[in-house]
Amino acid sequence: MALTGIKGFNDILPGEVRKWQHVEATARRVFEIYGFAEIRVPVLEKTELFARSIGDATDIVEKEMYSFTDKGGNAITLRPEGTAGVIRSFIEHKLHVADSVAKLYYLGPMFRYERPQKGRYRQFHQIGVEVAGVSDPKVDAQVLTMLCHFFAELGLTEPRLQINSLGCHDCRPDYRRKLQDFLRERLDALCDDCKRRYETNPLRALDCKSTGCKEATVGAPSVLDNLCAGCDDHFTRTRNYLDSAGTAYEINPRMVRGLDYYTRTTFELVTERLGSQSAVAAGGRYDRLIEELGGPDYPGIGFALGVERVVLLLDDEGYGNRPDLFIAFHGEPAGNEAFRLMSRLQRSGVSVEIDYEGKSLKSQMRRADKFKARYTLIIGEDELTRGAAAIKDMDRGIQGEVALDPERIAAVLRSGIEPTAGEGGQP
RNA sequence: GUGGCUGUGGUGAAGCGGUUAACACAAACGACUGUGACUCGUUCAUCCGUGGGUUCGAAUCCCAUCAGCCACCCCA
User: Fold this and answer.
1) Nucleotides in B strand less than 7 A from protein CB
2) What is the pLDDT of residues A192-248, one digit of tens each?
3) Among A119, A237, A329, A357, which residue carries the largest CB count within 10 Å?
4) Residues A11-20: contacts with CB under 8 Å, at least 24 apart
5) pLDDT at A4 exceeding the cut of 90
6) Rounded distance, CA A84 to CA A259, Å?
């Protein structure tokens, strides 16, 4: 048996890569409109970084990280998400000194040891953004607007934006206690997972899919009714700015997060089209994280989107690239001329395909058709002696003649064929 | 990590104990007498994810293993 790849680690083959490039290029283009700059950080970080940022009681840190000891005895981990590394870099290089606002984006592979499914792999890719240094809700609304803008640019209008506020370190503990009080009498109705999490993370019950938990949490106190004055004001203003920007959203007071660092605004972009992998992008505010990791007392907000999931939402159409010209030839001398022309034309920016083996003319024409070449140049022996060859517009099926000269050929490719009398293609 | 389903050529698939392992698409070549898309012809799985077992005989039954999918879990 031949060697195979690792489970959950996928090859992205040439046909698919075009979609990826489109997604990445769109992200870069849109994000730069909003003033974001790319940052590239390593794939490996010290294990401690993730334990401290994501939270060591979370599932990600507890059982999904690719952690190991390197030859120097250091505990290191393949990044399971992007925020921690970006923030670490922000702090380490004191980026806040150069500018009190940092607007960064990144893209690349992330790693989590999960059971693979469609839209969920062990090596997966995220495009993410982080803003450090602004607590004003304008930036919350701007980040969300940019995220929706990005999806709109891809022609994806179906994912819906859901927002919520998780409160801050002042009001969340109170809410949590309140919710625990509410759940205490209904503990029996909860699923085993939520029973287990009752102490550690009772909020999860709000988001649980089991019918028992759904019923038990009907009438549960809502986070949004229990925000402190500051958080409540922040959420209201965020919504006002979203309205002002024309960004559509819905409020989902049951949305919770799996990473511990989130505060205040949280959000998800959800789709119906990916089965249980419904979140295609998600993020939120993390006002304490930077300080907790040893940086300045800076607020932050960011999101990450799953590239695999976005690619899955894209249609297959329209990702082919058509060569400008296919050169068909007959005989060795014509082959040499074809090669010479191809080289010159390619150097001047024209994309040219050729049949390297010089098969039959029919075979070469078929290949030109398969490549969807716009034009085909046909060089035979008499064309060679005449110094001019037939050039065919493959879409229109008409044929003309052109001198065997790179510049004349390029000119025809630009302005089209003028059919020569007497000769010419049949439809 | 838990539960369920699936695994036949590049793709979609038929076959369900004894067949030359159908068929369609794709692909390669050829015919239509130097030029693609239509039509026609030829070729294309010594082999049925892998390893073992049962049997006179297995792609078809059993076991294991690997992989994929779906749901849970979690999350982007």
Assistant:
1) 1-3, 27-32, 34-37, 49-50, 66-76
2) 777 877 877 788 888 887 777 888 888 888 999 999 999 999 999 999 999 999 999
3) A329
4) A15/A319, A16/A311, A18/A319, A18/A320, A18/A321, A19/A311, A19/A314, A19/A319, A20/A125, A20/A307, A20/A311
5) no
6) 11
* The one-letter amino acid at A319: Y
From-to residues of CATH 3.40.50.800 in chain A: 325-415
CATH number 3.40.50.800 given to A325-415? yes
What are the DSSP calls for A244-299, one per residue? HHT---EE-TT---SSTT-EEEEEEEE-STTTT--EEEEEEE-TTHHHHTTS-S--
Query: Which residues in range 369-408 of chain A are in contact with strand B, contact meaning CB within 7 A of any of its atoms?
Result: 369-370, 376, 378-380, 382-383, 390, 392, 394-395, 397, 399
Alpha carbon distance A167, A102 (integer Å): 23
pLDDT of residue A373: 93
The CATH class given to the A14-170+230-313 domain equals alpha beta
Terminal CA-to-CA distance of chain A, rounded, Å?
Answer: 50
Q: What is the pLDDT of residues A374-395, one digit of tens each?
A: 999 999 988 999 999 999 999 8
Residue A92 phi, psi dihedral angles, 5° rounding? -60, -35
